[in-house]
Amino acid sequence: MNAIVIYKTKYGSTRTYAEWIAEELSCEAVDVKKLKIDDVLKYDTIVYGGGLYAETINGVNFITKNMEKLEGKKLIVYSTGITPLHCREYYDKMVIEKNFKGDIKDKVKVYNFLGKMIIEELSLPHRAALKTLKKIMSGKENPTEMEKMLIELCEASGDFSDRGAITELVEYAKA
Ligand SMILES: Cc1cc2nc3c(=O)[nH]c(=O)nc-3n(C[C@H](O)[C@H](O)[C@H](O)COP(=O)(O)O)c2cc1C
Fold this sequence. Notes:
The protein is of the alpha/beta class. It is 38% helix and 23% strand.
């Protein structure tokens, strides 16, 4: 297998997963900043990872805007985020809808992993964004399940990364 793992990270969580996956696939993990799309066309299997920011997979347009060039490749995308596992079924579908328009979702296999968010490590704009989101959601009279989940998300702090979670992705990449 001829594979590459590409990642975009702000706080390191997605890079950690990229390194774990690359180790399992015996290939390289490379920061997307160092690559142009033409650099990856020599690989048959392309894994892209990005953290979730307001449900958007960081930098995923590296893949989605280049679907024509990537025709015929095995494309795998993973996100890292801190959405609690009990909300995942609903949430993961939403992430797919938001990030993969039209028939792109049928051409990319998507996995979602728990990542890391340590409040003290966040940039000031990120801390402010979470504070504002929490304020808005907490002010709702009858919050929906989604809104309750967002409040929970704003308060979460910790490293929830789990190497065991990559097994399915690795098996799919190798198959
Ligand atoms: C401003 C902000 C928005 C976020 N939005 C989401 C989100 O919509 N869904 C989610 O599950 N996690 C969200 N997170 C958590 C990050 O996705 C999580 O920390 C991720 O592992 C970061 O990956 P990275 O450090 O590789 O960039 C958010 C974090 C911040 C700071």
